[in-house]
Amino acid sequence: MASLYACLSSVLAAFTRMDNQLFVPRDVHRSAASGLPSPRRLQSTKQSNHHSDNVMRTLFVGVVFSLSVFVNAWADQPQESKRQDPQLDGVWLLKSIEKSGEKVEGDGLPERMRGTTRTIAGAEMVLSRGGGTRQLNLSIVVDTSRKPKHLDITAERNGKSRVLKCVYEIKDGMLRIAENATERPDSFKTDTSTRTMVTTYTRKSKPAHQQTREAEPSDQPTSR
């Protein structure tokens, strides 16, 4: 990022130098040797320089705008270290659904949603419903530098991709995912003014590597 801003500063400095060089009337440089320029020549020079002024300023604005778009696009990309969240790994069991300010859980859940799980391992997610009889393989990208954290869930079907832009949080052993069909939510609010739906999951099991690490005996000597 620092190099991009340095590049932008260099471009600004270059245009400033060009502005100072191009917009000084040519006849002014020669006035000491050939006398004062005629009014007609001076007027023509002013018009020419005014046209050059407009052209250069238009180019200047275009370059600055292009660089700004590039910098912003680069900044929007999550850094590699922020693309994964080990806390997501594991099997998550659906606990509740909240929409339009109303929350249902337990026996109040729609029958088709009961027992729904999300199994996450790195950049892969498996959505399972109906006791595992219906499964959907998905891919995910996270950005943990955002608040709330971003979660993009991609589904592939018939050669086409559909990306659901969500936010999530893990708190007190619960995973909350806020999703919206039209845009990424900026909070977990679900009042009637939004189309946001929040699903809450409890951790059913941890990933295998965490279970193995917890099962290993401690190297620390026990106190007596």
Automatic annotation (TrEMBL):
This is TIGR03067 domain-containing protein. Residues 31-50, 200-224 are annotated as: Disordered.
